[in-house]
Amino acid sequence: MGRSPHVAARKLAPYRSRRQPDFANGAMASRAVRDRVGSHLDFRPSLGQETAMRHVSELGLFILIGAVLAVLGPYGTVEDPVLPRALFWLGTIMAGGVVGILFDTVMQRWLKEPWLRMAVVSVVMTPVVTLIVLQAMNLLLGHDHAVMSPFTRQLLWQVLIVCLVVMGLRTLVQRRPEPVIETRTVIAPPLPEAEARLRGRLSARRRTARLIALEADDHYVRVHTDAGIELLTLRFSDAVEELCSAHGYRVHRSWWVAADAIRSARWRRGSGELELEDGSLVPISRSGAPLLRAAGWL
């Protein structure tokens, strides 16, 4: 039977071959043969792994931001002792980050655009984070601020700025480009019985040769192989019918080509041609183009 599907790795060259072979009789090909066409396996991390990695990256980001703010000491905190200041900034940034993530998770149902959602979340989370900051200032920095005070109203604007910065950096990190998944389809050799009837008509020299194409020639069929061309007394439609389970395309009323014999394809302004492995040029009709386009050649 055929070989197992081969799969290429992710994040490789930009060129991606996505050829999905059709068969001599198009959509009516047997399921057994279709199942032998190579597919791809996606080696993406599981959902649990992705979630864990995202949480780790967010935690690292919050710690980094908290450490930077602890060193800089904005909003007058530079005058506070180093240890309480570090605990204050690390604690409030991490707690505020968790609040922001919770609000962001809820908002995802209604706001799909990340940057708009970030702005809305920053505004909505500000009152909650302000209360956290106020309590942290009282506990860690020795302040004594009431919740309902002019200082708290001023603090709201300061917290909003920090929320925008933190959530904006989080959005920037989470918006990294999606990894490119390379998929390559390896076409399995045709089933022996798929070409048996037609091969039985060939001479001994070409009976086991690689089949490249069939070409209609009046009441004859030219069978192109890697061992040369042989002329058969056979209707072209009957020859194609005998290859109903083989990998290939009827690209023209006078041409059938094996899928693994195609080297390149060109299509421009309603016409095109295939270059085969033996150097032959085969015309592509308008009716044959959709098969090649679906297979990724055009």
Automatic annotation (TrEMBL):
<dbReference type="Pfam" id="PF04397">
    <property type="entry name" value="LytTR"/>
</dbReference>
<feature type="transmembrane region" description="Helical">
    <location>
        <begin position="82"/>
        <end position="103"/>
    </location>
</feature>
<keyword id="KW-0812">Transmembrane</keyword>
<dbReference type="InterPro" id="IPR007492">
    <property type="entry name" value="LytTR_DNA-bd_dom"/>
</dbReference>
<protein>
    <recommendedName>
        <fullName>HTH LytTR-type domain-containing protein</fullName>
    </recommendedName>
</protein>
<feature type="transmembrane region" description="Helical">
    <location>
        <begin position="155"/>
        <end position="173"/>
    </location>
</feature>
<dbReference type="GO" id="GO:0003677">
    <property type="term" value="F:DNA binding"/>
</dbReference>
<feature type="transmembrane region" description="Helical">
    <location>
        <begin position="59"/>
        <end position="76"/>
    </location>
</feature>
<feature type="transmembrane region" description="Helical">
    <location>
        <begin position="115"/>
        <end position="135"/>
    </location>
</feature>
<keyword id="KW-1133">Transmembrane helix</keyword>
<keyword id="KW-0472">Membrane</keyword>
<feature type="domain" description="HTH LytTR-type">
    <location>
        <begin position="207"/>
        <end position="298"/>
    </location>
</feature>
